[in-house]
């Protein structure tokens, strides 16, 4: 009886074990299916976001469209999400640049392009300075977080086949914001602002350097702003680098560098 009893218990335990294995296998299969569904949903959302934001990027080149965007009740939320998305993207790079034509790249660059277009309009600049300072802080931080050489590699190609560089879009936004006096005051007071500009001047991408020079010009040509950082500016300015750019084969870079040098000479003569 004892033998039969133990045999029955063993068979019961074995049957329970087989059932549990089947249940675990079924749960694992369900988990994999859910993971696959979530991945597909994420890919779809990224693809849809890239398409929608690319369209909005093009539309936002119109001042009327920018006013419509800012007039909606989702503007603050949009720019908040934009900053978070750009920050997450840059942090995910870890020194490696993803496939240039990927939807994720296109999504992030389109967001940056929209902000650039918004900042190109007076009411857009005022909105960013007054209501989206966190986004401006994030952009300044991201310029410092991008590793040397990444500015050149992080490009996306639009319908016109012209490469838009992430660093360039951010710098264009900051330059546009600097046209607004409050905007220039805000970004120029950001910790490490001048060292960041000097560091970016060493980037191999001519477009990046071009927009850095324009941003420097904004500071130089606004006496009220320049006076607050004049000492640091004069003691750390990478003059030789700018002189080299004034001899660049890139005509646009050469012209802006020469303009900046003339502005600096005029500034020194006035200072003397």
Structural class: mainly alpha
Give the tally of β-strands: 2
Count of helices? Answer: 14
The side-by-side strand order for the widest beta sheet comes to 1-2
Helix content: over 70%
The ordered H/E elements are: HHHHHHHEEHHHHHHH
The percentage of residues in β strands lies in under 5%
Main beta-sheet strand count, sense and barrel state: 2 strands, antiparallel
Task: Calculate the mean pLDDT score and round it.
Answer: 86
Task: List unreliable stretches of 5+ residues.
Answer: 156-164
Cα end-to-end separation? 113 Å
Shape: elongated
From the alpha-carbon coordinates, what is the Rg to the nearest angstrom? Answer: 27 Å
Explained architecture:
It is a single chain. The protein is mainly alpha-helical and 272 residues long. It contains 14 helices and 2 strands, in the order αααααααββααααααα. Helix 3 (75-91) packs across helix 4 (103-119), helix 8 (166-178) crosses helix 9 (181-188) and helix 11 (206-220) packs parallel to helix 14. The chain has a two-stranded antiparallel sheet. Mean pLDDT is 86; it is low at 156-164. The radius of gyration is 27 Å and the shape is elongated.
Short descriptors:
272 residues, mainly alpha, two-stranded antiparallel ribbon, 79% helix, 2% strand, elongated
């Amino acid at each position: 009886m004892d033998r039969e009893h133990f045999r029955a218990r063993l068979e019961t335990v074995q049957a329970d074990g087989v059932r549990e294995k089947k249940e675990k296998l079924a749960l694992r299969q369900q988990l994999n299916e859910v993971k696959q569904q979530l991945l597909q949903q994420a890919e779809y959302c990224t693809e849809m976001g890239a398409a929608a934001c690319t369209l909005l990027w093009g539309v936002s080149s119109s001042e009327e469209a920018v006013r419509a965007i800012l007039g909606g009740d989702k503007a603050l939320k949009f720019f908040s999400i934009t900053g978070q998305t750009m920050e997450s993207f840059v942090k995910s790079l870890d020194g490696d640049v993803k496939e240039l034509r990927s939807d994720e790249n296109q999504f992030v660059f389109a967001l940056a392009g929209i902000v650039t277009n918004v900042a190109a309009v007076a009411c857009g600049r005022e909105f960013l300075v007054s209501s989206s300072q966190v986004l401006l802080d994030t952009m300044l931080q991201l310029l410092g977080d991008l590793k040397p050489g990444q500015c050149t590699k992080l490009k996306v190609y639009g319908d016109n086949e012209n490469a838009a560089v992430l660093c360039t879009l951010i710098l264009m936004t900051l330059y546009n914001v600097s046209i607004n006096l409050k905007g220039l005051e805000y970004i120029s007071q950001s910790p490490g602002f001048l060292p960041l500009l000097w560091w970016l001047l060493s980037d191999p991408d001519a477009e990046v350097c071009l927009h850095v020079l324009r941003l420097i010009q904004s500071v130089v040509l606004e006496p009220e702003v320049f006076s607050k950082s004049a000492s640091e500016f004069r003691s750390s300015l990478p003059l030789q680098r700018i002189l080299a750019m004034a001899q660049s084969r890139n005509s646009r870079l050469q012209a802006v560098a020469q303009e900046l040098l003339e502005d600096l000479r005029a500034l020194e003569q006035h200072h003397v």
